[in-house]
UniProtKB/TrEMBL annotation:
PANTHER family: INTEGRIN ALPHA, INTEGRIN ALPHA-IIB. Residues 3-75 form the Integrin alpha second immunoglobulin-like domain. This is ITA2B protein. It is a single-pass type I membrane protein. GO terms for biological process: angiogenesis; cell adhesion mediated by integrin; cell-cell adhesion; cell-matrix adhesion; integrin-mediated signaling pathway. It comes from the Eukaryota. One of its GO terms (cellular component) is external side of plasma membrane. Residues 82-168 form the Integrin alpha third immunoglobulin-like domain. It holds the Pfam family Integrin_A_Ig_2. One of its GO terms (molecular function) is integrin binding. InterPro entries: Integrin_alpha_Ig-like_2, Integrin_alpha_Ig-like_3, Integrin_dom_sf.
């Protein structure tokens, strides 16, 4: 028949050990099958596999058959990432007579300020780390400046690498 095992986690020689009592007394030559389901947290930085060492021990008589068995289980984190973007203002129209003023350090001489805001959301179920987001922003069109990249900022513990040509004219 099926029985629930009584399992107790503990630390032994610096390792995390889970000790499960299978039954006492057990008849000589008894064969048992044990299915275990383990819930392990904090695997984000464990690599692509986790290794368990399993051993069946008898309190009555030590046996060379009580060998240590190593089981490697692949770890695959799953997360759904969502990128949202917005431009402020949403629509920008330059007057037909407007021309950029070469060499000027005034923002208005380079065009209308447009702010692009991107939000990267993790919809789970796993946590993520080491994410790289690459945004390709067209700064030129037909050899002429389309967007003058002024500055780049982040929030929430992220870091960014400034693209080449960021605020090249020190506006």
């Amino acid at each position: 028949g099926q029985e629930k095992l009584n399992c107790n986690p503990r630390k032994e020689n610096g390792s995390h050990v889970v000790l499960c009592e299978l039954g006492n007394p057990m008849k000589a030559g008894a064969r048992i099958t044990v299915d275990m389901e383990l819930s392990v947290s904090g695997l984000e930085d464990m690599g692509d596999a986790i290794t368990f060492q399993l051993q069946l021990r008898s309190k009555n008589s030590p046996s060379p058959a009580n060998a240590l068995v190593t089981v490697t289980v692949p770890v695959e984190a799953q997360a759904v990432m969502e990128l949202r973007g917005n431009s402020l203002p949403a629509t920008t129209v330059l007057p037909a007579s407007w021309h950029r003023v070469e060499g000027s350090r005034q923002l208005e001489d380079h065009g209308i300020k447009v702010e692009h805001v991107y939000q990267l959301h993790n919809k789970g179920p796993s946590t993520v780390s080491g994410i790289t987001l690459r945004l390709a922003i067209p700064s030129q069109l037909g050899g002429r400046i389309l967007l003058y990249l002024l500055e780049l900022g982040t929030e929430g513990g992220m870091s960014c690498t400034n693209p080449p040509g960021l605020n090249a004219e020190q506006v």
